[in-house]
């Protein structure tokens, strides 16, 4: 049996041709011929199956230690397919800190179709148990809830977006299973290179393959992996009937990106660690959100079954410093949403990735108006740090100027009205 880095490069053969091609072909065919009326071909229509897509689906299932994989046109299409296995009246417990697009899909689409979502602090296992069981409880934001039916699922991110809080897959999955629920894990920030959640008790793993797996900001894709055949059957039904499948050329883009996943992520993690340490010591930075700068980071890795913390971090500037000035003066970091690509990106969650959250909800989960998220690429770490340094210098200049003007106005006003 081959090891992980070899699996990244070679995947599993689909046995679809005898040309000797080193790379799987891209089959741009919407339909496939039957040998006869009596026979059923392996592939008949590309929405239902395609050799290029099957290679990718088999590979991600192999990498995540699952039984079956599915490729979708986006991460949200993948989440939509997974959530479609639930029925009106079902209740799903959700980690309180999730991607804004996921929040919107849950609360503005599925909630209107009869599925109930309850946010919970997934690091508070007593509160999580109460929420999954459905017994009377007080939520993390102080609301009193009456007893109700047990949840059907717990949905959470391994590393939360954008505060990079670590969720323990093993413990959360155990709580879910104790009450008959399944554990659905968004593994986008971590990838199977740093953790395989199915090995830790999760039932379904989701990826926005747009991010680390593809890795080059050139394709939009989503992947799902399952352990259970019945769950897999339901997700395939959704994939085939909704039709949000990943097209062959894009499947090949993701496959090619996966080949260099380990190499890219090693550099991105090293860069993220260096940047986090730099920001931690900067006088204009109030807080750095990256587990790698915690004193007990090795313990956090071991306790959570992680092999690293990935290449995304966030930080808050001190009150009075405008994060917009920092972001608008970056030159190597590009001001853009998304993450996991070879180039470094910076964004303002309050107005960009998490704008769907009402401000009150956003502040409840700690996404402040001073928060900046960095998706660190593979550039030279020194260049990235210098870029952040000069942008913070510009923000300080604006801070000093604005406060000097305010002081002058204050003195003028005191003189006029004395």
UniProtKB/TrEMBL annotation:
InterPro entries reported for this sequence: Cys/Met-Metab_PyrdxlP-dep_enz, Cys_met_metab_PP
GO MF annotations in UniProt: transferase activity
CDD domains attached to this UniProt entry: CGS_like
EC number from the UniProt entry: 4.4.1.13
Domain of life from the UniProt record: Bacteria
Keyword annotations from UniProtKB, A to Z: Amino-acid biosynthesis, Lyase, Pyridoxal phosphate, Transferase
Cofactor or coenzyme needed: pyridoxal 5'-phosphate
Family indicated by similarity: Belongs to the trans-sulfuration enzymes family.
Protein name: cysteine-S-conjugate beta-lyase
Organism: Bifidobacterium miconis
Lineage, top ranks: Bacteria, Bacillati, Actinomycetota, Actinomycetes, Bifidobacteriales
